[in-house]
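Thiamine-monophosphate kinase: structure tokens wanted.
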Amino acid sequence: MPAAEHHDDGARTLAGLGEAGVLRLIGRELAVVEERRPWPEGSVGIGDDAALLPVSPGGTLVSTDSMAEGHDWLPTWPAGVRTRGFDVGWKAAAQNLSDINAMGGVPTALVMALTGPRRTEAAWIAGVARGLATALLRLGADECRVAGGDLGGADRAGLAVTVLGRPGAHGVLRRTMGEQDLAAVRSEGGAVVHAGSAPGWAAAGLALLLTDRAELEERWHALAPQDRPGPRELVRAVRAQLRPRPPLGAGPAGAGALACGMDVSDGLGRDADRLAAANGVQLWADEAWVAEAAAPLRRLGRLLDIAPEEWVLGGGEDYGLLAVLRPGHGVPPGFRVIGAVPSSGRVPAGHRLLGEAGWDHFA
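Answer:
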């Protein structure tokens, strides 16, 4: 990813800038979004006590997520990688945009609440705003504007983001199937489809970040040369964890052909289990697809002594879109078949049941 534009904010802190100064700093970084996407006439964006947004004819989708230092990221990971404000802003935007996409929606507005200690460097805060704005521009959230937010003090940094959206042309995509779709899937069976980056890379990146740098180097040198992951694999994994890329547009474009769906935030297995439970069916993964998805992760798995299939099926934060295809419909662009929903009483050959392995915030 090209380096973000750098602004010299020196060693200034939140305490030194004060609230008004921090707001100006954030506004400067977010201006690029407003310049490219002016608000519709009659709307009110940043600057007043509240935003005034146009109402979507089909209703408004709302998603919110929070990230907290020490839980969702570390200032410096054991592997020696520092978390930049840019990374936090990007990821906070991406995970909320993913939820709107998974509902078959189009993101239209974003608000954020940012907290941190008085000693937090202004450059880090500017990076958060820059990362958020860059994610909107580069991930394809073409209608999404920043409508405002809040600042607050805290012992540790935190960022909460709420994204609003409108239903796409094919309506809202839900986790639960409609009665006709469910009856057809139970009778005829169905296909499990997925859009987005191959699952497992973000989990591999997290495993790398959480491993002590000295241990990583020792493990790397202990491997045979042909078994050592190269720089591209290492960078790809870490970047997948810090800057995920949800397949925005896949949800609204494919919703007409999908019976149900959800984003993969907590792991393919756990989220498939949720989708299955919501509909009283089973989701099975094609063993050939699992092997294909795991193959590029094989050397990273050897480095960390983890079977790459565990990352593919149990790792989270790739933010792909998992769905069940409506019987009789073709696979939408951007999706591929990765498994099956068997008709009642059948077990598909060459498949494994997708269980509930994955991320749990409170485990």
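Residues 1-11, 358-363 have pLDDT under 50 and may be disordered. The domain at 14-167 is CATH 3.30.1330.10 (60s Ribosomal Protein L30; Chain: A;).

Cheers.
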